[in-house]
Specification:
By secondary structure, this protein is mainly alpha-helical. It contains ten helices and five strands; from the N terminus they run H-H-H-H-H-E-E-E-H-E-E-H-H-H-H. It has helices spanning 25-41, 51-66, 79-86, 93-107, 113-117, 161-174, 197-211, 220-232, 237-244, 249-255, and strands at 124-126, 136-139, 156-159, 183-186, 190-194. Strand 4 (183-186) and strand 5 form a beta hairpin. The longest helix has 17 residues, at 25-41.
Length: 273
């Protein structure tokens, strides 16, 4: 007979929170958004849109702010750290894929990971194929802001310079002529199935580690980095929004990190002579 006392340690189901306490503000807001969307899809009365719920969320944000808690934002992968990350991509098939993927996502306006994973050869078109300079345009299909996949002029994104060259090298090495642009690479250099959105995140994280770039990076860091770098280089807001696809100025301004204002003349008025 086993007389050992049973362990009192709690066994937590996979994917559940493993400590008590307040969830992150982002988690709360996301859960409310998911519940709201579920009610909309079910064509039921949406309690999340009630004025009392909105007021409660407002109070919750203020309470988190008073505790010094802020919504978590991934670090922006701006030009300099991105160059360091790209330097880790060698001439192997995997290196060419990752270089083309990173530059495609960043240079075409900071594409979301779902857009990168869903990118297809059919939506990529070589521009002026007889010209010396390599250039492409990519037409976004289904996206967060275009759920129906309707053809819209604003969904055509340029791919030029180093991004175009990287894409050309990847297509030549992989032999891709149709279907997904970015795919898994199996042993022996064989192409596998299309990358999942989570794989795009993993590539960004792994390359940042290889480059020794410190910080909490994810696939979203490419989008945040593009907008932040636009601010650093004083690109116009309309031009930036045309590339990213944002419709809300408020949303775009939320991506600008404090570092993007370091070159502002307004921040140096005391030192200007």
């Amino acid at each position: 007979m086993n007389c050992r006392p049973r362990s009192t340690r709690r066994s937590w189901p996979t994917g559940t929170r493993q400590s008590w306490g307040w969830p992150a503000l982002n988690t709360l807001v996301h859960r409310v958004a998911v519940l709201s969307k579920a009610h909309q899809l079910a064509k039921e009365n949406n309690p999340c849109g009630d004025a009392l719920v909105r007021e409660l969320l407002g109070r919750t944000r203020r309470a988190y702010a008073q505790r010094g808690a802020r919504a978590h934002k991934q670090r922006a992968l701006t030009k300099d750290p991105l160059q360091a990350v790209l330097a880790t991509c060698d001439d192997t098939l995997r290196g060419k894929r990752d270089r083309a993927l990173l530059l495609f996502a960043w240079a075409s306006g900071g594409r979301r990971r779902s857009e990168v994973a869903g990118a297809t050869f059919e939506n990529l078109r070589r521009v002026n194929p007889h010209a010396c300079a390599i250039a492409y345009v990519y037409t976004l299909g289904h996206s967060k802001t275009n759920q129906t996949g309707a053809e819209r002029p604003e969904d055509v994104k340029p791919l030029v310079g180093s991004a175009a060259l990287a894409m050309q090298a990847w297509l030549a090495a992989s032999g891709i002529k149709e279907g997904a642009l970015f795919r898994r690479i199996r042993k022996g250099g064989h192409l596998g199935e299309p990358l999942a959105p989570a794989a795009v995140r993993d590539i960004v994280k792994e390359r940042c580690v290889l480059a020794g770039v410190e910080g909490d990076f994810s696939a979203h860091s490419l989008r945040a980095g593009f907008v932040t770098e636009s601010g650093r280089q004083a690109m116009s807001l309309p031009e930036t929004m045309a590339m990213t696809g944002h419709h809300s100025v408020t949303t775009v301004m939320g991506y600008f990190r404090a570092e993007s204002s370091l070159g502002s003349k307004a921040s140096r008025m005391l030192d200007d002579e």
